[in-house]
Structures are given as structure tokens and as C-alpha cells.
Amino acid sequence: MDNLLSGLSLMFFELQIVNQNNNENPVLVFSIACSIVGAIAVLLDLTFYVLRGRSLFDLNHGKLTVVFLIAWSFGALVIGWVGQLASIFVVSVSATVLVGFTWPLIITKYLKTKADEEYASEPEQEIAEEE
Fold this sequence. Notes:
Helix content: 55-70%
Number of helices: 4
Oligomer: single chain
Order of helices and strands: HHHH
Number of strands: 0
Mean pLDDT: 80
Radius of gyration: 20 Å
Number of domains: 1
């Protein structure tokens, strides 16, 4: 636990890159940091919704805000973990903010693009005329 807290402190407060040299678990540190930033993203969106009456991320706040908070945080944790295992990200604050804030937006755009491509590749069915 101390190793995790020291890694988070090193990344967030000292703005250093966390790696094997200064922390034993950089993947865990990055995943938890992405989850924290994901929760912050939902809380900032909720604040904007309360102050301005609209959501920047098009979330329907109210009873579902807790669900958004948990889902966004968990999704950021998983994407951060997978991205770190694939060596896509460097364990830094900027990468953490990138994953924590934008992972649902990127995933939904990607899935929409794939769905549009699949829809466009389907052969058009002609309506048979009754005789």
C-alpha cells in the first residue's frame, strides 16, 4: 500500500514519470491514477451541470450520477491497465489525464465508426413489388 501511495504522490505531486526504477508497481499506479482522474472527470461534469444546467459529456445527471462515477472510474482503470500492459502509455500525469477524461469518448466514436462501416457494407435489400 505504501508503494502505491508513494507512486501516486510521485506522479501527481512531484510530476515525475513512474517506472520500475522508482516504483515496484508502475502498472498498478497508472491504473489507479487513471481511475482517480476518471472520477474527477465525472465530478467536474456534475459541477458544470449544476452551475450551467448542461453536461459537457452529455451525461444525464441525477440518480445515475453514482453509476456514471463508478463506471467511468472502472473503465479508466481497465483502459489504463490494458494500455500500460501493451506499453502504449508512459506512467505520467498527462497520460493519466488523457485516459481518465477521454476513454469513453474515444471508445464511443470508435464503436460508432465500426457500426457505420458495418451498416454501409451490408447489401441493400430491395422491396419486392407485389404483383
